[in-house]
């Protein structure tokens, strides 16, 4: 099968290619020591290529081969059993990020070195670096997609107070521990997370002066959704239930604690239920009710379907997923099976968010990257650097939020193709050797198939090559520019 670019795609691509010849640079990137892995890639149907784009951070050669071998349903089951997938290669790449296993107290100590002010930035920097490395190199791709999904859902910015070090613990003990488990356990863990309590100001929630911020977001963003029918009085009384939920500041710093001295002991009413004095257990009782509420089943099912299927997901899939959510008491794996197996045939184009765009390019081209400052800078330019979204709603998941950042995408594409990103390297000639491509025409067909799922229609390909050759590019530069042009084209921006 060949791909026929739309006129818009073709004009965009030829314009980028023509312009790029004037910007050619021969400056070599810093070479990395880690060897590149050569694995040939099989041809997939358009439906299978779309599925892999949704279920991963972009298909790479290894993932394509595995998918072709076992099929969609078996691949999903394999990925849902993420704990059984050997991910030693990815973990090896994280070995030098020393803050991951630390307690909150130890993380604070790392961040509080009076002799080195830069150390305060070490913890969140390593967390961001690890997020990108996992997206690019983890074999547990569906797990990583879900980890990112829940990080948005339970958003915490490392720019807020002590979250700069507490978020590392939250990522480990809340998001990654429960990403494919029980929704109840996930909400429960988040509600007891010091990072969340700091981010949403529950530390200042005390009797006589309640702070409603966390209570409101717990209902509106984390469980029920804004249209679930709860009232302002429900929010106020839930906030009163949450008084005293705070974070230790001295011994065992950064751990959850309940301070009974500042807890409001009066009777509350939340969602029609009378809550009598029970200390910490009051809010925990409400959390049980929130996670079992039919509105939570629909709200979470809708968001998951939006992530995997379409900006406006099919109503019949949302309905079926919500029924499964209720029946299984929020079993995330069970809900995903419905959305993915029943919903993927109905999927509509989704615009790649910046981190998916970058990760998918790196994965497809078998890149070697350290995920450090140079790569993170492009995420920053595009507006999606991990754990820095300032408001509780998390990074947007619909196309209109991201279609204005095409220039940094173009810049990244050409810098990547020419190995101009410090700490990141691709080897296009070696990639072409894996499929025995001997001519520029064969190489461009393979690059298009690798990045878009199928070769370009021959006429489009030949016209693009004419543009390159007329601009005076040699074969090596032609392949680099062609690759960058495909990465920059509208066709690659969608998954």
Over the alpha carbons, how many angstroms does the gyration radius reach? 24 Å
Q: State the end-to-end distance.
A: 18 Å
Largest sheet: 2 strands, antiparallel
Proportion of beta-strand residues: under 5%
Strand line-up of the largest beta sheet: 1-2
Write the element-wise H/E pattern from the N-terminal end onward. HHHHHHHHHHHHEEEEHHHHHEHHEHHHHH
Q: What class, by secondary structure content?
A: mainly alpha
Residue runs with pLDDT of under 50 for 5 or more positions? 21-36
| Helical fraction | 55-70%
Tell me how many strands there are: 6
What number is the mean pLDDT? 91
Shape: globular
Helical region count?
24
Describe this structure in words.
The structure is a single chain. By secondary structure, this protein is mainly alpha-helical. Among the domains are: about 5-80 and about 350-495, no CATH class; about 295-345. About 55% of the residues lie in helices and about 5% in strands. It has 24 helices and 6 strands. It has helices at about 5-20, 45-55, 60-80, 90-95, 105-110, 120-135, 140-155, 165-180, 185-190, 195-200, 215-225, 230-240, 280-290, 295-310, 315-325, 330-345, 355-365, 375-380, 405-415, 430-435, 440-450, 460-470, 475-490, 490-495; strands at about 245, 255-260, 270, 275, 370, 425. The strands form 3 sheets. The protein has a two-stranded antiparallel sheet with strand order 1-2. A two-stranded antiparallel sheet has the order 3-4. A two-stranded antiparallel ribbon has the order 5-6. Helix 1 (about 5-20) packs across helix 23 (about 475-490), helix 3 packs across helix 16 (about 330-345) and helix 14 (about 295-310) packs across helix 15 (about 315-325). The radius of gyration is 24 Å and the shape is globular. The two termini are about 20 Å apart.
């Amino acid at each position: 099968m060949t791909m026929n670019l739309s006129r818009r795609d073709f004009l965009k691509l030829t314009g980028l290619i023509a312009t790029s010849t004037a910007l050619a640079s021969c400056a070599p990137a810093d070479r990395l020591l880690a060897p590149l892995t050569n694995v040939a890639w099989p041809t997939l149907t358009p439906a299978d290529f779309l599925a892999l784009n949704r279920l991963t951070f972009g298909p790479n050669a290894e993932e394509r081969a595995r998918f072709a071998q076992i099929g969609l349903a078996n691949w999903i089951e394999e990925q849902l059993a993420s704990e059984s997938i050997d991910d030693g290669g990815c973990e090896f790449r994280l070995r030098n990020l020393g803050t991951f296993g630390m307690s909150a107290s130890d993380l604070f100590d790392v961040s509080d070195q009076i002799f080195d002010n830069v150390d305060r930035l070490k913890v969140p920097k390593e967390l961001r670096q690890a997020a990108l490395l996992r997206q690019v190199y983890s074999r547990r791709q569906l797990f990583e997609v879900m980890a990112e999904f829940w990080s948005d859902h339970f958003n915490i910015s490392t720019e807020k107070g002590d979250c700069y070090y507490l978020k590392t613990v939250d990522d480990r003990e809340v998001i990654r521990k429960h990403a494919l488990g029980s929704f109840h356990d996930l909400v429960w863990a988040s509600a007891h997370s010091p990072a969340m309590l700091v981010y949403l100001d529950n530390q200042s929630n005390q009797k006589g002066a309640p702070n409603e911020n966390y209570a409101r977001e717990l209902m509106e963003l984390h469980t029920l959704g804004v249209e679930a029918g709860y009232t302002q009085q429900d929010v106020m009384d839930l906030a009163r239930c949450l008084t005293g939920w705070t974070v230790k500041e001295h011994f065992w710093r950064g751990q959850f604690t309940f301070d009974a001295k500042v807890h409001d002991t009066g009777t509350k009413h939340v969602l029609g239920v009378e809550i009598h004095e029970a200390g910490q257990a009051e809010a925990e009782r409400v959390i049980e009710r929130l996670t079992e509420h039919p509105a939570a089943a629909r709200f979470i099912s809708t968001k998951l379907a939006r992530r995997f299927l379409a900006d406006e997901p099919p109503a019949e899939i949302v309905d079926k997923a919500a029924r499964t959510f209720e029946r299984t008491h929020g079993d995330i794996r069970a809900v995903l099976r419905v959305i993915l197996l029943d919903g993927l045939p109905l999927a509509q184009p989704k615009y790649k968010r910046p981190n998916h765009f970058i990760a998918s390019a790196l994965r497809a081209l078998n890149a070697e990257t350290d995920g450090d400052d140079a790569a993170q800078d492009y995420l920053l330019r595009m507006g999606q650097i991990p754990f820095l979204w300032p408001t509780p709603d998390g990074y947007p998941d619909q196309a209109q939020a991201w279609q204005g950042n095409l220039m940094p995408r173009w810049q990244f594409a050409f810098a990547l193709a020419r190995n101009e990103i410090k700490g990141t390297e691709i080897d296009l000639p070696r990639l072409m050797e894996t499929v025995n491509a001997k001519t520029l025409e064969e190489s461009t067909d393979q690059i298009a198939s690798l990045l878009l799922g199928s070769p370009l229609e021959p006429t489009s390909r030949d016209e693009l090559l004419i543009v390159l050759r007329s601009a005076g590019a040699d074969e090596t530069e032609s392949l680099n520019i062609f690759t960058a042009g495909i990465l920059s084209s509208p066709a690659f921006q969608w998954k």
